[in-house]
Amino acid sequence: MSLPTVILILLVALCAPALGAYDGPERTRSTDEILSMIERAESGDTIRVPRGLYVGNLVISKPVTLDGSDGAVIDARGEGSVIDVRAQGVTVRSLTVRGSGSSVTGEPAGIRVSAPNATIEHNTIEDALFGIDLRQSSDSIVRGNRITCKDMEPGRRGDGIRLWWSHNCVIEDNTVRGSRDMVFWYSENLRISRNTVSDSRYGLHFMYSHDTVLVGNDLHSNSVGVYLMYSNRITLTDNRMRNNRGASGYGIGLKDCDDIVITNNALLANRVGVYLDNSPSSVDSTGVFESNMIAFNEIGLLATPNTHDNVFTLNAFIENEEPAATHGRGRLMLNEFSRDGSGNYWSDYAGFDLDRDGVGDVVYEPRSLFGAMLAREPNLRLFVHSPAQQAIEFTARALPELRPESTLIDHAPLSSPPSIEISLGGSSRSGLRMGGVACALILIAGACAAVLGSDHGSRSIRTGEPS
Prior knowledge:
- Helix content is 14%, strand content 34%.
- By secondary structure, the protein is α/β, with parallel strands linked by helices.
- The protein has two domains: 28-358, Pectate Lyase C-like; 367-405, no CATH class.
């Protein structure tokens, strides 16, 4: 055997593993082949779909597990929903699903489910009007999916994940990009955990959905991070709402919601950190905002004048252009800004703490003439940080009769940032501990990362503790 022949054989042997690792579809098939597998299977069977590109729509009417981990791709070529689950107890796992229809009248989806107890996990959904659509599908799990909706104007897109009348569901570890909303209609007892939503309209949107927990979600570069409407008894913990700067630009927005608990969240570089519209809406209800980082927003807290019965304590309001504001000439006197002797940290607080007990000896009572003018005429925001703003505030200090009434009163403002641990760009909970100037510098870096959309690395921050 000649030397060139030996070299050729060796090259083929070395390249064979790489050729075998090619993960693209081997050949084009019809979804009728998958349907035949389902028809031959028994209820509860697992069907491993061979690698390949399957063209057409697929209806699942038997409780089976469909596993595409060998590299199966289903493409509807722009017609209807790609996969339609109609049987109880179906699992759809590790498939690439793409090419739903685009007509809003039929609301086609990558995966549509209309039966309870479904598990939709670890799928990649591309070029779909709606990503995953659950209708009357209680006790279902949507986990670890990557969803990209059709490249359309935001108002014409479908929802990345939508639940309608689907109770007791778990929605976790999904990544949604370029959708309209991740929306929950008339669905109760949900757990929404560790999802990432970006470049969409609303990151998480609730309508008439109660008794739900939101934990560890990362919502960035949307128009709104979380918007709760007519939904009660919702708890938000350890979520990150950053760089949500659309027309509304709320990190968290509440409208007519009762008994909302918001703790240990990071609201960074949004247009508005927290927006309250008639929440709570009932006389005997309360809202609790505790240990949240509200930093580098245009407005930290914005509320309608009729907002009442909210308690704010141990929050850190850091370097917001306006710490708090109301629509028009209203005030926030029907809310409490301290509890059990602990108020909030305000980076513009000009008081002092002579006894060094951590609480300022002078109440925090912001009176900004420019802020009052801004509430009546939002276009004046053009002059924020300009000599015009400084001149107006100087005039108000020189002529106290021009100073407006205070927006709020914090009777126990904190003299240093409280201890708050937040995670930026990852799930690690091992925090850096710092306070004072170091804390502010790290938070600025975190806010800049949010604005730039950087998700690289995993780090967390604990504020208000000595280094």
